[in-house]
Design brief:
The complex is a heterodimer of chains A (about 500) and B (about 325). With about 500 residues, chain A is of the alpha/beta class. In chain A, about 30% of the residues lie in helices and about 25% in strands. Chain A folds into three domains: about 5-235, 3-Layer(aba) Sandwich (Rossmann fold), CATH 3.40.50; about 250-335 and about 425-505, P-loop containing nucleotide triphosphate hydrolases (Rossmann fold, 3-Layer(aba) Sandwich), CATH 3.40.50.300; about 350-420, no CATH class. Chain B is mainly α. In chain B, the strands form two sheets. Chain B has a two-stranded antiparallel ribbon with strand order 1-4. The longest helix of chain B has 29 residues, at about 1-30. The termini of chain B are far apart. Classes of the chains: A alpha/beta (about 500), B mainly alpha (about 325). The interface of A and B includes residues 91, 93 and 99 of A.
Chain lengths: ~500, ~325
């Protein structure tokens, strides 16, 4: 069998962990090959080795049967390997064309020559159906087009092996469909695609073969057509996983939180990012705020939690006006917040776990007396939470939070917020960046809290999460709530259309 | 009319060094390295250049010696900026601290060496560099009076540096890569650009220009060098910010601040201002008050290069 790229027995270590342990990955020419694995399974490390960002300690890489040495991205480029990174590598104040030619510029008499490049990009964009405006600035175009720019960057360099690192994470369902079409088109033109993901549906849709990694080890390489999603997820996680969430009917009670005509202005751009938003959350229900990233969700949550002041409007909690109160007052009144950015707003990374667990309570009589902290009480309480929520760390309550894994950091926040018995819990992308096991845990906890009679506002970008977890869906688009939907009655495709702003509902 | 000529000619003396040094700062910051060491580099450049002039004056006629002095100033500026580049690029040091260190070191070094050589810290030189009138061009009515009389070679050098900087930044491969490194070094790295090399280049260019700027500042405004450039390096930073890291706006900003400086230094030669009868302190204050006011209003929508000041770490994504 002829392989275009072979990575044989790759081993890559970082201080303390083996990220890749004897991994073998073989790509056939003209296939779409999926690389499946949880966070931390070693997918990105393996790709960084192939792309020349890291050097492997052991193992060899072959192209068309010949051993090659890839020391930097230039070497990879020369071998025809290109990569669309998960976080796009685009310069925001450059034009599309400048970003495409950057690093592969043509020069005439010391002067940049862009006319030929622009013609070539136009031709490529027509040939593969990659619509872009080559003179637009990156900061003015959406993520969908930014991704097309990244693809054009690879095609411009005549790469034949294209790596896509979790390309669908930022896209709407419609954009995902379009991307899948483009990927098939590229393969039919003779390109080879390596597709990194942890979404099984997408693998089923486009991939020919799939290599599964777990904890840095190669588990198997399978034909996608002959393997079920359940089998693949079991190989990925190492045990049977329940992909569905079991939850009963919501028993809703009184209104816990009421938001009326809320307007929030971004202090930098002076744009109205939350526009006349009105909704309420009742006890015992999970209301999901669905939307594509950057449509005002973050600012809405900041206003609710007190991180920024809204321009106008009213926020009530349990009938009390909290619009102008401080963050501490809101917390004490029964607001819980699992923030979007756990490093920025959730934890003090260089404090230990115990201190992080009492961040909102250290000043209460339980934990201080006359201005002095009661250490024994703090550690006692921390140990209790660690036990109850199964937070794992190297040195228990004394572990610096920075050294803990993302999943356990998130568990620490969840533990802290839930143990304060909030009536109104705001959870923003609570499963972002977590692996399947941790996601399962967080989902289960949120449903339990709902059943305990708390009102939960869940902000999520993951459509599956929205559909499975919520009792009601509010769709936010450009700062406005454009639809209120029943997850039982709406399809994922329709939800996508609402999120993309091409459809509006009654609200 | 002669007051206007005087004002324009004086403004040149103050604006051109600001322009050159701010353009230097632009190259450094656009590559992603904050360079608050401009002041220290200016002192170093001025010191080396003036020493050179002091020693070789008399051996050569005025203009060649000035040109050679400029080269010496540029080289010494590059040399000291190398320490900044090494600390910021190789050692991932805090760029503000490294810059501050140079600012503290340079005047002390200049005084120390001057005293070693001549027992006093002032280094005198004879101003034989003034061009009374440029042949032919100086004869043009009005324009000749404004731009080509009572001037220095360095004025034209400043405009040449401006034109070249603009061309390099926007029309060359190096310029495109430099700007990419200042905004998104990871993006530059992923397309095979050596971020470290580009940043070294940016800092070295800023060193050369700030060094030249130091000498260009001292020559028309003084007859000896006293280990100081009177905060001009910091003023150049203000020009850079007010100029939004763009050559054309830096030009405007440099002339704005240059005019303020001229008012402060030469108000006694402007009949209108003398007649106002304001205390002299008021005029001397203007450049600094203007800096405060202008920066307070413009820094809010400032478009600093996004990666400026952040050490580049290959592993972060």
């Amino acid at each position: 069998m002829e392989y275009i790229i072979e990575m044989c027995n790759i081993r890559k270590e970082f201080p303390g962990i083996v990220a890749n342990d004897d991994i073998t990955l073989r790509l056939k020419k003209g296939e779409i090959h999926a690389l499946l694995g949880e966070n931390g399974a070693g997918k990105s490390t393996l790709m960084s080795v192939l792309f020349g960002l890291y050097q492997q300690e052991k193992g060899i890489i072959k192209k068309n049967g010949e051993t090659v040495n890839i020391k930097n991205p230039n070497d990879a480029n020369r071998l025809g390997i290109g990569m669309v990174h998960q976080h796009f590598k685009l310069v925001h104040n450059f034009t599309v064309l400048e970003n495409i030619i950057l690093g592969a510029e043509t020069v005439e008499g010391g002067r940049l020559k862009t006319s030929e490049a622009s013609e070539r990009v136009q031709r490529l964009s027509e040939r593969y159906g990659l619509k872009v405006d080559i003179n637009a600035l990156i900061s003015d175009i959406g993520v969908g087009m930014q991704q097309r720019v990244e693809i054009l960057k690879m095609l411009y360099r005549e790469n034949e092996i294209l790596i896509f690192d979790e390309p669908t994470a930022v896209l709407t369902p419609q954009e995902i469909d379009e991307l899948m079409k483009i990927m098939k088109e590229l393969v039919s033109e003779g390109k080879t695609i390596l597709f990194i993901t942890h979404k099984l549906n997408e693998i089923k849709d486009v991939a020919d073969r799939c290599t599964i990694l777990r904890k840095g080890k190669h588990i198997d390489t399978v034909e996608v057509a002959d393997t079920t999603k359940e089998e693949m997820s079991e190989m990925m996680v190492g045990r049977k996983v329940d992909l569905m969430i079991n939850k009963g009917e919501a028993k809703t009670g009184d209104v816990i939180a009421r938001v009326q005509h809320l307007n929030v202005r971004n202090h930098l751009s002076q744009k109205l990012v939350v526009n006349d938003v009105t909704f309420e959350v009742r006890a015992g229900e999970i209301v999901c705020l669905a939307g594509i990233d950057g449509n005002g969700q973050s600012e809405l949550v900041y206003a609710l939690t007190g991180l920024i002041q809204p321009e106008s409007g009213k926020i009530e909690m349990k009938g009390q006006d909290i619009t102008k109160t401080s963050i501490r007052e809101r917390n004490n009144a029964g607001l819980g917040h699992i923030p979007e950015d756990r490093h920025k707003h959730g934890l003090v990374l260089d404090y230990n776990l115990a201190y992080n667990l009492v961040l909102q309570r250290y000043f209460t009589k339980d934990f201080q007396e006359n201005g002095f902290l009661k250490y024994d009480k703090i550690y006692e309480y921390a140990d209790e939470l660690i036990e109850k929520f199964d937070i794992r760390s190297g040195r228990g309550a004394k572990t610096p939070v920075r050294s803990m894994s993302g999943g356990n950091q998130q568990k620490a926040i969840v533990a802290r917020e839930i143990d304060r018995d909030p009536d109104f819990l705001i959870a923003v992308q609570p499963t972002r960046g977590l692996d399947v096991g941790a996601i399962e845990y967080i989902h289960k906890t949120l449903v339990e809290e709902r059943d305990e009679g708390r009102g939960i506002l869940l902000v999520s970008l993951e459509l599956d999460e929205v559909m499975n977890l919520s009792d009601r869906i509010l769709v936010i688009y450009e700062g406005e709530i454009v639809a209120e939907l029943d997850p039982e009655k709406v399809t994922i495709q329709d939800l996508g259309l609402y999120m993309a702003g091409s459809k509006r509902g009654e609200h | 009319m002669s007051t206007v000529y005087f004002l324009v000619q004086q403004t040149m003396f103050f604006s051109i060094p600001l322009l050159i040094v701010a353009l230097g700062g632009m190259f450094s910051e656009r590559s992603g390295i904050v360079n608050i060491a401009l002041e220290g580099i200016m002192i170093t450049g001025a010191f080396a250049g003036i020493i050179f002039i002091n020693v070789f004056q008399g051996a050569l006629p005025g203009q060649p010696i000035l040109l050679l002095g400029i080269i010496v100033a540029a080289l010494s500026g590059m040399l000291i900026s190398l320490t900044h580049a090494y600390a910021s690029v190789n050692m991932n040091a805090n760029q503000v601290i490294s810059g501050t260190a140079i600012n503290m070191f340079a005047p002390a070094f200049a005084i120390y060496v001057a005293r070693m050589l001549r027992t006093v810290q002032q280094i005198p030189f004879v101003n034989q560099f003034r061009i009374r009138s440029v042949p032919v061009l100086g004869e043009i009515p009005i324009l000749g009076n404004l731009l080509f009389q009572n001037t220095y070679l360095t004025t034209y050098l400043g405009f040449i540096i401006l034109a070249v900087s603009w061309f390099v930044l926007y029309n060359t491969r190096f310029g495109l890569r430099l700007r990419a490194c200042g905004e998104h070094p990871q993006a530059a790295d992923s397309v095979g650009i050596n971020v470290y090399k580009i940043r070294y280049a940016g800092v070295l260019i800023s060193g050369a220009l700030a060094g030249i700027g130091g000498l260009v500042f001292v020559v028309p405004t003084s007859t000896n060098f006293n280990a100081t450039v009177s905060g001009y390096g910091f003023l150049a930073l203000a020009v850079l910010i007010f100029g939004q890291w763009k050559p054309s706006r830096i030009l405007v900003a440099a002339f704005f601040f240059g005019l303020m400086k001229t008012i402060a230094a030469a108000y006694s030669g402007i009949p209108f201002l003398v007649e106002l009868g304001m205390p002299s302190d008021f005029y001397k204050m203007t450049p600094y008050v203007a800096t405060l006011v202008v920066l307070a209003f413009t820094s809010k929508k400032s478009q600093a290069p996004r990666a400026a000041g952040i050490p580049y770490d290959k592993a972060s994504r």
